[in-house]
Q: What sequence folds into this?
């Protein structure tokens, strides 16, 4: 079976090629389409990170899946940011945003695979990742990489859509799920993908989980890496 045959057999399957193709299409219109609906989640994620440091205590933070950089202006000046994304067209928009807004706390915006981060172990005080886990081919591997680059005692903040278990929304997500390759993300995404991963990591503790507007469609989850690493 060829790759394209596999795609036709399972249209909910996504890989890097699907994601890059989809976000190259989304890049020119992404901000217009998604700014409003995803703003509460980005604000919540930035607030969770901002609370970790202080003006006299800067922190180094990795933004995984920074995209067009919509959340970058939401971080406090003491948050020193490195952003990565698979999509170069999205990053080009993020770089223009940083330049236009004079965001001096953004240290780098790099093209990189979230499943294979090139950073050293324990390099960042925290990792933030809004709306990314549903877009990667292997969510568990991506989460493993986030933990690896987080220092002991550091935080990992995720915001993501969690699929409905039943009802009309679940039916809509099922219909959209058969178009995941075109969308570039999985509309059907159970909490168990994250929860089961966390349950298998004794060095990672879930400290916060809450739904976010609009309509509870998104969930913020905050994890802490144990001091022992």
A:
């Amino acid at each position: 079976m060829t790759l394209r045959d596999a795609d036709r057999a399972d249209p909910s399957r996504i890989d890097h090629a699907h994601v890059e193709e989809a976000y190259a299409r989304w890049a020119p219109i992404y901000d217009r389409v998604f700014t409003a609906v995803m703003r509460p989640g980005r604000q919540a994620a930035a607030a969770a990170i901002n609370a970790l440091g202080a003006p006299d205590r800067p922190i180094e933070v990795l933004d995984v899946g920074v995209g067009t950089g919509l959340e970058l202006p939401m971080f406090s000046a003491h948050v020193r940011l490195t952003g990565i994304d698979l999509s170069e067209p999205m990053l080009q928009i993020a770089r223009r945003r940083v330049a236009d807004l004079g965001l001096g706390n953004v240290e780098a915006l790099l093209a990189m695979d979230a499943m294979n981060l090139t950073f050293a172990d324990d390099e960042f005080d925290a990792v933030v990742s809004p709306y990314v886990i549903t877009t990667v081919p292997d969510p568990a591997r991506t989460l493993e990489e986030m933990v690896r680059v987080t220092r002991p005692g550091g935080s990992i903040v995720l915001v993501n859509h969690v699929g409905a278990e039943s009802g009309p929304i679940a039916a809509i997500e099922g219909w959209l799920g058969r178009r995941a390759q075109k969308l570039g993300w999985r509309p059907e995404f159970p909490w168990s993908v994250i929860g089961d991963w966390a349950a298998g990591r004794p060095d990672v503790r879930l400290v916060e989980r809450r739904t976010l507007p609009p309509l509870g469609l998104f969930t913020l989850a905050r994890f802490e890496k144990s001091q022992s690493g």
The longest strand covers residues 150-161. The chain has one domain: 3-225.
